[in-house]
Amino acid sequence: MGAEDIIARIRADAAAEAERIRLKAADEEARIRREGEAAAAREYAAICEAGGREAKARHRKILARAHLSARTAVREAREAGIAQCFEAAQRELSALPGTPGYAMVLQRLIVEGQEIVGPGDVRVLYREEDADAVRIALAGSPGITAAVLREQPPDGAGGGVVVTCRSHRCDQRFSARSARMRERLTREAARILYGADD
Known about the structure:
Helix content is 69%, strand content 9%. It has 4 helices and 4 strands, in the order ααβαβββα. The protein has helices spanning 3-95, 102-117, 131-137, 174-194; strands at residues 122-126, 145-148, 161-165, 168-171. The protein has a 4-stranded mixed beta sheet. Helix 1 packs across helix 4 and helix 2 (102-117) crosses helix 3 (131-137). The radius of gyration is 46 Å and the shape is rod-shaped. The N and C termini lie far apart (111 Å).
């Protein structure tokens, strides 16, 4: 074997070794690429999943705020409607004194007040402008005394009487009765207006 054959053989071995190294490098590059793509795909999936969870959480918060705002708006609208009912009732009650049926209303208030204060020397306190209506209301109730009430109701609304017996007192003025009955009347108004026990 001559020098040329030896050089050719060295070149062939070198080329084969270079090809083997190139193939190994290509395989290594492909493996690194596959692992990189798999890692990128996992990272992408994790980011998408985290983003999806965050988006769902934000969506739930937005919906919760919207539901709360809607409930608040409905509650405020209902409260405004009920307040209008009370204002209308107050106007009706304020217009009642001086009407032909007012004496009958006072008579009923006196009877209810008597049931609350109990038996004994019953006294009815009334507004000075209601003297005629009280006289008519007490016409069938001998033994009940009456006197002018000097104190004004806190809200300035007129109408009604105060029934007393010994140390017992039943304020049957319209303003006091409205205040006592407000919670029950609010529930009843809500049921009538909105069909619910709010």
